[in-house]
Amino acid sequence: MVQGPGRAVLVTGASSGLGLEVARRLAARGWAVGLMSRDTARLNARAVRMTLDNLKCMDCGHTADQCQYQWDRVWGTNY
Questions:
Q1: Residue 65 belongs to what H/E stretch?
Q2: In 10 A of CB 44, how many CB atoms?
Q3: CA atoms of 17 and 65, how far apart (whole Å)
Q4: Distances (CA, A) of 66 to 23, 33, 37, 43
Q5: Does an H or E element contain 35, and which?
Q6: Cα(65)–Cα(79) distance, integer angstroms
Q7: pLDDT in tens, 25-46
Q8: pTM (2 decimals)?
Q9: Which residue, of 12, 23, 58, 69, has the greatest Cβ tally within 10 A?
Q10: What DSSP line would sit under 13-54, residue for residue?
Q11: How far apart, in whole angstroms, are the C-alpha atoms of residue 66 and residue 45?
Q12: 20-70-4 Cα angle (round to 5)
């Protein structure tokens, strides 16, 4: 797996199960992780927990438009 600054990934289904575990592991390796899920309440809680654990992540919501807006607003176009 590639590591280093400037690495970013979008994980769908990140509010539970495999998607959540993949997101946590990538964030632990230094990746900027955008989280997406249909269950926005659960997703937000997971993003808060990951942030408290000092993992770089962002709740992107559940649509591509929401994700693009959040990504650009928070991290810009550096990724």
A1: helix 64-75
A2: 15
A3: 24
A4: 18, 15, 11, 14
A5: strand 32-36
A6: 17
A7: 999 999 989 899 988 899 999 9
A8: 0.76
A9: 23
A10: STTSHHHHHHHHHHHHTT-EEEEE-S-HHHHHHHHHHHHHTT
A11: 17
A12: 60
Bridge partner list, 34 = 10, 58
How many degrees, rounded to 5, is the angle at CA 38 between CA 33 and CA 41? 80
Q: Could you identify the residue written with the tokens 């230094």?
A: 30
- Residue 18 reports pLDDT greater than 80: yes
Question: Cβ(5)–Cβ(37) under 8 Å?
Answer: no
Q: Which residue has the tokens 């390796």?
A: 29
> 14: which 2 tokens?
């990140």
